[in-house]
Amino acid sequence: MKQITVVSLSSGDPDLLNRLTLNALKTACPLILRTDHHPISAWLRQQEIAYRSFDSLYDQTEDFDTLHRMMAESLWQEAGDSGLVYGVPDPLSDGSVRQLFSCRPSPEDRVEILPGIGITAPYLSRCRGALRDPDWRTAAASSLFSAD
């Protein structure tokens, strides 16, 4: 059985990472980030936490559907019984995380998403008082293509 643990890197402020996420980042072997261009990368280097990213795949693909599929396939190939940790800004809206479920090699293979603060929470908490309509939603831009 293969295991992939997905953690939320949120906005990149290490003070917003919960204990589960911090522990996963510190003990991961391997730790893979969606991108090294995320603000948390500098903190990981300061903490001497080794990781690698999928930045090279961005240049090899022409669309996000292909990119997300390639990321997910690569993660499943590398995941073993001991598993791996995959860091993204917001697991609930990330297309590569969605693909992890779609291209799971076998039903026994597991994706565990650790609870954490998503990418929008820090920003929305700062501007909530300025929002007049109490009925607001956030959505990934990619979801707008299929919206009615």
Can you describe what's shown?
The structure is a single chain. Helix 4 packs across helix 5. The N and C termini lie far apart (39 Å). The longest helix has 15 residues. This protein has 148 residues and is α/β, with parallel strands linked by helices. The chain has a 5-stranded parallel β-sheet, sandwiched between helices. It has 6 helices and 5 strands; from the N terminus they run βαβαβααβαβα. The model has no long low-confidence stretch (mean pLDDT 87). Strand 2, helix 2 and strand 3 form a beta-alpha-beta unit.
Question: Secondary structure elements and their pairing?
Answer:
Blueprint: E1 3-8, H1 19-27, E2 31-33, H2 40-46, E3 52-53, H3 55-60, H4 64-78, E4 84-88, H5 95-102, E5 110-113, H6 121-127
Helix pairs in contact: 4-5
